[in-house]
Amino acid sequence: MGLDRKISRRKFVTGTVALGALAVVGGWSVLKKSSIGRDIENQARELLQDKQVQYLRQMVTSDNARSRRIMWQAAEAMKSPQVRLRPLNEKNHEKVIPVQDDSFFDDGENHIQYSALLDNLEPDTEYEFAVEDGDKASTWLPVKTAADNKSRFSMLIFTDSQSSDYSDWRNVAQNARKRHPEAEIFTNLGDLVDNGEDSSQWRAWFGAIDGIIDHIPFAPVVGNHECYNRDWKEQLPMAYLRYFNVPENNSKDFNRYYYSFDYGNVHFSVLGTVEREIKGFKSGLIEEQVEWLEKDLQNSTKPWKIVLMHKDVLQYRIARMPERKEGFSEEGQIFMPIFEKYKVDIVLTGHLHTYRNRGHILQGKHDKNGPLYILCGLAGNVRYDRLWTDHALDKVVAPQPETDNYMTMDVDGKRITIRCFLPDGTKLDEVEVTK
Description:
The strands form seven sheets. Strands 17, 18, 19, 22, 23, 24, 25 and 26 form an eight-stranded mixed sheet that branches. Strands 16-15-14-27-28-29 form a six-stranded mixed sheet. Strands 5, 6, 11, 12 and 13 form a five-stranded antiparallel sheet that branches. The protein has 435 residues and is an alpha+beta fold. The protein is built from eight helices and 29 strands. The longest helix has 15 residues. Helix 2 crosses helix 4. 19% of the residues lie in helices and 31% in strands.
C-alpha cells in the first residue's frame, strides 16, 4: 500500500501495518506493528521437522510449454539430491535431472534451498516428478506444460497476501483452488509477506499454499513490503529474490526484479515497482525497465499482452487529506504511455488493498481502445477501511468495508474473462475483453 510523499512509506508502515491484533487509529482499521505470533513460528518449525523436503514449488519459465523450474527448501543439507522426471505413469521413460544448490543466509538463518530446471519438455503434456536424496524420495507430483499457442486456460490471481498470521491467506488461496481446480497457473501481485526479512512469515506464507504452489506454476511480483528488514527500514528484497528464481532479464543490477514469460497465447510482462524502496542502495530500476519493456512488448508475437505489477497506475485522494489530489501515480505516468504504444490488453495491479475495475483507459480517459486496468484487492488481512476516495475513473468498487478477495482469468481464444470473488465464492465483478 502506498501514499504520496507527504507521508513517508516508513512512517506509514510503522504507524499502521503489520503484525498482531487489529486496532482502530483515527477511523482506519489497521494492524499493530509487532513480531509475528508464536503460533505461526511454532507451526513453521513443526512443518520443517515434519519431512526433509519443504515448500516445494513450481516456478514459471520464459517458455512454459517446454520447461518448468522446481524449487524447495530442506530441513537438513541433502547428500545427493536429484529430481526424477517422467511422462505421467510411464516408468520406462524416466530421466534424472541435476540439482543446483541455491542455499542462502538471511534473517540470521541459513536457508538450505535447491532447484532444478526441467527442460526439453513437450508442449501440452502431463509429466510427474519426485525429489530424491539417496534412498529417500518425495511423492510424485504433476507437471503440466502449456501448449505453444493454447487458446484456452485459466489463471488464479491474488495480491497483497501480507498478514498477521496468514490464516486469511490460506483460506482465500485454498478455497480459490478448490473452486477452480482447472487453473493451470497463479500469480500474486506483490506484498506477499508483511516483512520481507522475517523468515517465519515466509514459512507461514509457503505453508498456506501447500498443494497449490507444488502443483501449478507460480508467477511472483515483487512488492514494497518485500523490501523491509526487521527494523522496518528499507533494504533490497533479498529473500524474495532468492526464494523465486524467475526468468532472466539480462540485467546486471536488477536480475529477477522484473521479467516476462509466455503461457499459451498470452505474453506476460512482470514489472518491479520498488524504485523508491531500493534507491538508497542502487538506482536506475525504472529507467532500465522502460527500455526493457519497450523491447519486450515489441518482440512478442503472442496475440495477448498482459502486464502484472504491484504499485497502481492511479493516484487516489485520501479521506481527511484534501491536499492529496486525484490523478495518476508516478508509475502510471511512466508506464501507461508504453502500454498504449504497444497495445497492451490488460494491466493488473495491487498495493492499495482495494478492488477497483477502471475499465479501458487511453490517454487518461475511458476509451474502449485502451488497456483494461484492474486494481486487484487483497488476499491477506491488512485492510484500510474507507481510506481511499473513489476515483473518477473507477467503474466498479468493491463493497465497503472491504474484505479479502481473489480473481480468476479465463483465456478462451479471442476472449478473456476476468472475475472477482469474495473468499466464500460470491462473485463481485466480471469483465470481458475481446479481440
